[in-house]
Amino acid sequence: TMENQFYSRLHIVFAGLSAFVFSFWLYHFGTGWPAWLNAFLGVVLGALAYGVFALLWSLLGKAWQWLPEELRLALITISACLVTVKILGLNWPDYLYYPAALVVFLVFALTLWGFTAKGKKAGRVLAVLLPLVALAWGVNWVISEGSDPFPDVEVSRAGEAATTLFLAENVANPGKKGQYMVKQFTYGSGNDQQRSEYNESVLYKTPTVNAKRLLPEWKGKKKKWRERYWGFGVEAFPLNGRVYLPVGEGPFPLALIVHGNHSMIDYSDGGYAYLGELLASRGVIVVSVDENFINGHWSGDFMGKEMPTRAWLLLKHLEQWKKWTDDDTHELYGKADMELIILMGHSRGGEAVSIAAAFNQLPYFPDDAREQFNFGFAIRGIVSIAPTDYRYHRQMDLKDVNYLSLQGSYDADETSFWGLRPYHRLQFGDSTNFFKAGVYIHRANHGQFNSSWGRSDFGGTFAPLLNTEPIMPGEDQRQAAQVFISAFAEAVFNDNPAYRSLFVAPQAVVGSYLPQGFYLGHFSNSKHHPIQDFEEDINLATGRDGAQILANHLAVWREETLSSRDGGSIENNVLVAGWDYGEEVKSDSIATYNLRLPISSSEKIDTVTHLLLDVGHGRWTDLPGRSDDDATDDRALDFRIEVQDSSGVVASTLLSKSGHSPQPVLRARFTKLERLDKERFDQEYEPQLETFALPIHLFQTQQEGTIHWQQLTQIRLIFDQSPVSIALIDDIRLTSGL
């Protein structure tokens, strides 16, 4: 009959849809087989999957005879779809997945009924249109970028460039292209069967390296499918790199950058051309290192066990560059200055560069001493971009190296500023002028630091649930990265101290060097002399070097280890100080935090130019009787800092006199559903501190005399600028220069 023919055709349509889904899935599987073969296998599997479900439902047909044919067809279809998406790994939460499946089922059922049922035409048309409208709304919600739940912060604060007392007016924009023409080429082992740039198009051939002892996990299906795809295995890893070379005599400083754990078959090394081209134009050789062959893949992720290999490969690239630059018969002879090296990494690559800096000083691979190391390169700087700091089972404690880390507040992959953990562990042990810095970039995500990774920090079926609307444009995010990384390179390679100030007060150049937004800077250097860092013990009454502590009228007073958004440890202790006077500041009960110092604590520093401290917003829920809804003044965190010397001279200034006020609490909503956000990420924000540097000339004495900064006996924090607030305070220190 006509009706049976109609249902038969519908079965063919839905079987074809299932075949298309499987075909699309297998096409991107990266099995190493031809793409057309993957697609064909997908068609076969999809058709078979639908046929199996149709057969199962027909066997149960007697139990469902009372149901209309269109409803039974809908049941067959939705069952096939449910199982298909589960097979493909749809990781939506059940409270979202099953209602969505029910909606899809109802849409199919009503639409089929509307086309086939007898009755009034208007009712049937309505039965078709209503579910289609509902489906269109659902599809629009899935494909939309989401919404910005916290726009008031950006509206009220964006564009307020901070006044700086540090950044010299004549410092050129480090994000501006330099004077050098740039030559681009690739080098490699020539055995990459997937990409011509690392096969027949390489300008210089390099030897392979044996990473068997570094990566014993190269086995099983990881080994089988990777070797089928790439054409090489762990005993013949290539040294592949994209080079951005300044055209000139040289020698030029050398910077290597390595990607993170993106999909193995979505090649990542080309996504840092924006950094390579900029730095090369300013006189730095940049190499974007290819390590895609150890990235995650459908056949398996090494789950961090590949981290030593990521680091080791960077050092093997440096070995190759040393051979070239020392070989007077090679075209690259004398091009690289092997005494000036920076390692840069993104995501897992951001952890790998710290591991590489540690391996660089070791005689043996710590996980297998049969692998001997003999590196010892002059690594002057480390740049970690949205890094991990937990993948490798060993924790890297760096020493005597310059360090920079960048992190975005809308990073849904690495949701915490893990780069601050190695920042705080990094120690300076000699007189060389090293520094360390970190920048928290509001509305930056994880992927846009690489120009090919995009705005969704999760791929696959979870990507449609991400809230990408509030994320800054990719061009702006990469512009910010260019400014900070280029400033770091100028400070390290050219010993230009003016650029260090950018990390103390980045808001000073918002609207000129930097796109509009919020940037929280962290900064310290080897000239800094710590007064109090809250790391020494759990005794609230004592501090470093025998300092005595006294607090008055504080509603909250404790020291705690900062936690990440998901409850992990940032591995840094801070002072939590809260005060609550009610409606207005009460002069007879001002809250204070008093550090009484032995004179010897500041005698150790010859010259004092600045007092520095790190300050951020605490959580209002820690104040008795307060909630986050009461935090109307959380953007006006300010207090007085008072110092006294051994002769009794007292001087003070306000935190806000440093040149910028504390930035507002920077909240983020990673997903389109508030409930899902709380389940996966717990908090709407992660407490972030920023560095405030107060030049000593800002401290005004209250009587005649001059403060002797080498003989301080007291530092007092006086919370008299707002009636209620809660502050996180860390690393009170003196310095002889930035």
Record the SSE blueprint.
Elements: H1 2-27, H2 35-59, H3 69-87, H4 94-116, H5 121-143, H6 151-157, E1 182-188, E2 204-205, H7 220-230, E3 240-246, E4 252-258, H8 273-281, E5 285-290, H9 307-326, E6 336-346, H10 348-359, E7 379-385, E8 402-408, H11 420-425, E9 435-441, H12 474-493, E10 519-525, E11 528-532, E12 548-552, E13 556-563, E14 569-580, E15 591-596, H13 600-603, E16 610-617, E17 640-645, E18 650-654, H14 674-681, E19 689-695, E20 700-701, E21 712-719, E22 724-735
Parallel strand pairs: 1-2, 4-5, 4-6, 6-7, 7-8, 8-9
Antiparallel strand pairs: 1-3, 3-5, 9-10, 11-22, 12-15, 13-14, 14-22, 15-21, 16-19, 16-22, 17-18, 17-21, 18-20
Helix pairs in contact: 1-2, 1-3, 2-3, 3-4, 4-5, 8-12, 9-10
